[in-house]
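Good day; I would like, with your permission, to put a structural problem before you. A protein sequence and the structure tokens that stand for its backbone fold form the material at issue. I would ask you to consider whether the tokens describe a fold that such a sequence might reasonably adopt. I set the record out below, with my sincere thanks for your time.
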Amino acid sequence: MASLLEQLSAMTVVVADTGDLEAIKTFKPRDATTNPSLILAAAQIPAYQHLIDEALNSSREKLGKETSIDDVVIEALDQICVIFGKEILKIIPGRVSTEVDARLSFDTDATINKARKIINLYNELGIEKDRVLIKIASTWEGIKAAEVLEKDGIHCNLTLLFSFYQAVACAEAGATLISPFVGRILDWYKSATGKDSYPGNEDPGVISVTKIFNYFKSYGYKTEVMGASFRNIEEIKELAGCDLLTISPKLLDQLRNTQAPLEKKLDLSNLNNLEENIHLDKESFDLLMAGDIMATEKLDEGIKGFSNAIEKLQNQLTERLQLIERPVDLHLSR
């Protein structure tokens, strides 16, 4: 019998949720996603130190020797995400998702400008924009930025998505892809209810993604659904048939080493949609989000978490650049 991973790959696009190049080589997904936390984790791996140095040296060369260390590091934050993306694209045949600085999540113009800069950096490396998905937090401001970018032919992956209404707004904006966070939704409900676990078909994150998938397909939205942030393989099994699923190396390994029948749970030929087609403006979006405590809390927590990861990476880059550029003490070198 084929493994769960083989069966899943036949009905869903499997995406690697990691910045670890060796893991991507192992599982050979079509696409890969990164975020600040994953890049920070990858940056701790000694084998990737040369990529850190490449980003710093490239940024210093671009800005000039008189530029302050702080400014070089800020430039390097963009460079390092693109350099990791470049290395990932050498391995996979599809697309890599690269995230806009989460600290810009409530600034539409700044998000647009940062996204265009990231695409330009990829272009300088000879990488076409169709191989890159710009990841943007699913705030109203982020969704409006994606709407502008999509019209410019820059494809977007709307992330930190916890609410049906976030998903609807993304689809109406013409986003290429959304990433609803299955596991983080489950985390919130377990904490709120005190329940230790949920059966796969009762998992709140699974129910949320299923609802979004059925709604999008019922009303003909072109935005693809990519379930993300999984806590166990039961969640993944319940979403077999989703457009895409982005999965950590640990869970990919479990799927690869498990042999059992896999049923296609999300199926275009058997849609179950009970939702009326709705249209959102900023006022209705804000009102509906305010009424969803889980989505509001998890969105805020996610933005803060990714922002903290960026700041930690920034500190690491500062330390490394200071080490690289530290003047040689000629007296001690004799």
